[in-house]
Amino acid sequence: MELRQIEAFIAVAEELHFGRAAQRLHMAQSPLSQSIKKLEKDLGAQLVERNTRTASLTKAGQSFLPHARNVLTELDLARRSTNSDDGAIYGQLSIGFSGALNHSTLPPLTRALRAYYPGLDLILNGGLLTQDALDQLRQGSLDLASAH
């Protein structure tokens, strides 16, 4: 499995079209298709359902997509931290919240986090119900949640 195959898969998954994904990656459609086929062979599962006009993700593709995105995110974080001389903290912090937190607490919290940790990428997920927030915390898709 190669990094460029993962990048190609993510482009196809987001575009749901091989032609648009190829344009986005500045490559021809045939090598893109070959790259996806090689990735599927390496994984032992079909990730993309193909037809003449569109593409769709198989169940295996839907399962693989968040992991593929995590690989690229972690690689980006590794590059940034490796190239940093200032001892800054790099990473992502995913915060889930209900609408109530949105107006009072969230703006000062995000301002403070961005001021103290400029290398930290904040991912904000609003409008979550308490149970959804707890489920996402357990699954690891949220790092912090506020639920009322």
Automatic annotation (TrEMBL):
UniProt keyword Transcription regulation, yes or no: yes
Pfam families: HTH_1, LysR_substrate
Cross-referenced PROSITE patterns: HTH_LYSR (PS50931)
Superkingdom as given in the UniProt entry: Bacteria
GO MF annotation terms: DNA binding; DNA-binding transcription factor activity
Species of provenance: Neomicrococcus lactis
Boundaries of every HTH lysR-type domain copy: 1-58
GO CC annotation terms, alphabetical: protein-DNA complex
Keyword set, alphabetical order: DNA-binding, Transcription, Transcription regulation
Protein name: DNA-binding transcriptional LysR family regulator
Protein family: Belongs to the LysR transcriptional regulatory family.
